[in-house]
Each structure stands twice: as C-alpha cells, then as structure tokens.
UniProtKB/TrEMBL annotation:
Domain of life (superkingdom): Bacteria
Gene Ontology MF, one: N-acylneuraminate-9-phosphate synthase activity
SMART domains: SAF
GO biological process: carbohydrate biosynthetic process
Domain AFP-like: 285-341
Name of the featured protein: N-acetylneuraminate synthase
UniProt organism field: Clostridium manihotivorum
Pfam families the UniProt entry points to: NeuB (PF03102), SAF (PF08666)
Gene that specifies this protein: neuB
Matches recorded under CDD domains: SAF_NeuB_like
Length: 341
C-alpha cells in the first residue's frame, strides 16, 4: 500500500510507541486520543526482546533517568505486545477509522506484522544500518518510511541502495535527531532538505523535541510525513512519556499544522475575495486638497490622497496634473475624468 498524499497536506503519524506500558487497555486509550486529534495514523512498536537486545545491553541515559537502573532486556520485556494484542489493536483501529502502523525491530516482528497485513513499514533510526532487515522488508514491496537519526549521508545512501537493490523504489526518508529530548540547536532541520536534494526522494521529519514548533516548521519546509510521540500523561512510568505530547498538545499540533497547510494557498498573487472589502477602505483616491474653481489648471499642490478607494488611484496622478477643471470641485471631492479635461 502506498501512502496517498494530498497536495500541501502532510501525513501525520502519532507515535504511541511503547507508551502503552504493555497494557492493551492503555493502548486503546492512545488510539482514542489519536482519533480525537485527527492524525492520519497511529504507530506502535513491535519486537521480541530476546531478538532485539542482549541480556546485558545497557539502557540509554534517558532510559536510566525515566525508568531507573537495570538492563534494556528487563525494561523491554514489560513493553512487548503479543500477536493477539496486535490483532486486537488493529481491529480496534479499523473500528475507529484510523490507520494502524507499527515499527518492527527484528525479522520475527516483520513476519508478525505481515500476518496482520500492515499497509506499509516504518524503519527506526537504529535499523538504518541493518541491511539484512532492510532488504527483508524491501522484498515485501510496500512503502518504507526510513528514519535517519544518528546517520551521515553515506549511511543513508547505503540504506537506500540496499532497499532499491530489491526492486523497491517506494521510499520516504525522515530526518531525525536521536536524542531524547532533542535540544532545538541539535535539530538541524535543514538536513531534511539535504536528504531531499541528495536522494530525490520524498522527505519528512520524526521529532523528539519537547514542543511542537519544529514539526510545524518541518511542514513549512516541505515535510510530507510528520511523526511525533504522544502519551496519555507525561508523568506515567516508562521510557518515552517524558518526551511525548499529551492529548491536548497533540491535538493542538495537528490543528496548527493543518492551519499552516491551508495558509499555503495556490501561490497566485492577487487580491482575494475577502481582501476586496479591505481594499475599498484601505486604499486611497485622488481628491481635491482645496476648492478648485471651474477653469483652473490642476497642479500637484491642489491634490491630496485619501481613503476610501472610490475614484482614481494615486498612481494615476500624472494623468490628472495639467488638466483643467470643467466644473467647480469642492475640497475632499474625488478628482475623476468626468470633472477634468
């Protein structure tokens, strides 16, 4: 399945990730929040902890801060969703008329997502250099949205080439900074267009900042996909809640993006229909600065330029100067071609 893009409308993915804390009831509540925010899709994460990390793999610093001591394995085991959970969640999303997505982190998880017929794939930044998995997914001939956090252009090129070598050209690259949270000075949003120019592919942005300003800016810069983490409550236990948007914030971000997109318009520079009323009261006309007698030759000193725009515009003053008044013209009266010659 290919993402259906509309002109000047980004595809917004609400990243639930593991913010369900392994609880299907919380996952469904996250679906409800995403639906209320009017996003295009909600995305979870699919993994088998044993396939993803070694038993001794340490936590990232932000994970230590949010979940305390221990290994990644211990943390991730609590956050897994079973096949039955996936089936139930996808069915719930279909009932709510929102697209269900999930990022696979191992080949077994790819197979799981294929069983439930996921429409397309999102690849995490951590798997950008996982060429075997990229090729495994590429052969499924579905759209691949690939995050590029932590990568340089050479690594992105290797990933793109690996995917294309399997005959899959349907790639979208997401600029991303894999810090949680990402400081504004670390975002480097201009790199999104570097990706676009380098690979001639659609680009988007996966955000890890604490606010919503950067995703909005990315849309202005041409992002076709926006991905943003969200949660029910930033104070919940778990690794990603703290850097996620709460429900009203997600809703505000989506509305702000849609407002910005509507503001793009058609690009034609013209006076809009609603502007015409403003034009009448804001623009000026050529008027008499003093009483002008019949037969007087019009000079610039006799003229003034005042609102509203009912007569000749000031831009036509040279066509008025030097003409003679053919009737008496009172102060502030419009100078028009029917009262001069």
């Amino acid at each position: 399945m290919k993402i259906s893009f509309k002109e000047n409308r980004s595809f917004i993915i609400a990243e639930a990730g593991v913010n369900h804390n392994g609880d299907i009831a919380i996952a469904k509540m996250l679906v409800d929040v995403a639906v209320d925010a009017s996003v295009d899709a909600i995305k979870f994460q699919t993994f088998k902890s044993e396939n993803l990390v070694t038993k001794s793999a340490p936590k990232a610093n932000y994970q230590l801060e949010t979940t305390g001591d221990g290994t990644q394995m211990e943390m991730l085991k609590k956050l897994e969703l079973s096949l039955e959970d996936h089936i139930e969640l996808k069915k719930y999303c279909e009932q709510k008329n929102i697209l269900f997505l999930s990022t696979p982190f191992d080949l077994e998880s790819v197979d799981l997502l294929e069983k439930i017929d996921i429409p397309f794939y999102k690849i995490s930044s951590g798997d950008l250099t996982n060429t075997p998995m990229l090729k495994y997914i590429a052969k499924l001939n579905k759209t691949m949205i690939v995050s590029t956090g932590m990568a340089n252009l050479s690594e992105v090129e290797q990933a793109v080439n690996a995917i294309k070598s399997c005959g899959n050209q349907d790639i979208i690259l997401l600029h991303c900074t894999s810090n949680y949270p990402t400081k504004y000075e670390e975002v480097n949003l201009n790199a999104m267009n570097t990706l676009k120019n380098a690979f001639k592919l659609p680009v988007g942005y996966s955000d890890h900042t604490v606010g919503m300003e950067v995703p909005i800016a990315a849309v202005v810069m041409g992002a076709v996909v926006i991905e943003k983490h969200f949660t029910l409550d930033k104070k919940m236990e778990g690794p990603d809640h703290k850097v996620s948007l709460e429900p009203q914030e997600l809703k505000n971000m989506v509305q702000s993006i849609r407002n910005v997109e509507v503001s793009f318009g058609n690009g034609i520079k013209e006076c809009g229909e609603d502007e015409k009323k403003s034009k009448l009261v804001s623009r000026k006309s050529i008027v008499a600065k003093r009483d002008i007698k019949l037969g007087e030759t019009i000079t610039l000193e006799m003229l003034d330029f005042k609102r509203p725009e009912k007569g000749l515009p000031p831009s036509m003053v040279e066509l008025v100067v030097g003409k003679k008044a053919i009737i008496d013209i009172c102060k502030d009266e419009l100078i028009e071609f029917n009262n001069i010659r």
